[in-house]
Amino acid sequence: MMRFKRYSANLLFFILSLLFLGFFFLGERFIPTQINLSTMPMLNSMFVVFLGLFLESIPFLFLGAIASSFIHLFISEELIQRMIPKKPIAALFWSIVAALIVPVCECAIIPVVRRLIIKGVPIHAGVVLLVTAPILNIIVFGSTYYAFQKNPEIIYGRVIICILTAIIVGAFVYIFCRKDIIKENANEHNHTQHDHFSSLSHKLTHLINHITDEFFMVGKYFIIGAVFASVFQVCVDRTILAELGNSQIQGTVLMMGIAYILSLCSSADAFVAASFSHSFLPGSILGFLVFGPMLDLKNTLIMMSCFKWRFVFIYILLVFLVVLSLCLLAGVWISRGGL
User: Where are the domains of the chain?
Assistant: First the structure.
């Protein structure tokens, strides 16, 4: 029965991939003739916005699923553990380097960090991995670059604020949070490190299965986020958007809240953020792009199952305050002619 479900999921994934490729290359030719919403202009506008977000993001969602699955299955936790030294300052910066080779998914990194801390990796180094892993990878950088080609301050600001947040939060945790933070008998998330397989065919089979699971998991959240963004862009009164968007503090807090609720995958959240760029200031957009991958609704629940509630509360409060402060400073700097 389980094997039938797995084959069905892989077949559905293959069919959907073909449909996505067809939409991507031929959508402009066929979709307008098949779906006529001219009598409902508001619904038509929402559909156009949603379709644009969807078609732009699909390649990066797919690449992100492949990269995450490959890293998850072929990069061992022992390799990551060996990369991180025991000395506090060295561990802080080497954790940022290690973030380049850990799983892309912000959900996947949480149980990985939990196991690394149990094996002896310093707590503050594990926290740095939690903060940086969802943002500091080539897929996320590529999608951000594609979505904000004319806004280099957003592209590089996302990386810089992520690194600064990691250093500040990691240093704080090293000074003030040296107690045991691991929750006993925590249930592991589905994204756990799998056993090594004896043959290449088994590895490839498991890789395909993991790509399928990863793609559908992040895809459903992205679709919800894209629908929300399209409805928000079309239905919310422009004067309200202008008032919120022109306020640096209110706009940034709102965008961080939206990112938390939508729980988007970091490999494609830049396209949703770009849809808000005409209504919100650059600092607010950076708040969405930096805070969302570090903290969202679904990974908060996973953190609660892996770490003690006091640590989770301190981590959420600390990340929120640091990201908000840095994004506000970045917004002021950009408004004065930054990058």
Answer: 42-335
